[in-house]
Amino acid sequence: MWIHEAVKKALESNKCITLPEFKGTAKIKPTNGREKCIVMEANGGNPSRHGWQPRAKDLIRNDWEIED
Prior knowledge:
The protein is of the alpha+beta class. Helices cover about 20% and strands about 20% of the residues.
């Protein structure tokens, strides 16, 4: 799905988003808070302290997925 669709669903269900090549290894928790978007391991460990900085090609992909 497109990133805006994935983020909307993730926010509604308190979940994360990921891409196929990162499934099972990394995920992104979208927020509207000071944390911005938090990158973490798939198990929720090692959350970053900085907001995610996507590349343009990340934003135009249509294969984003919802992850717990």
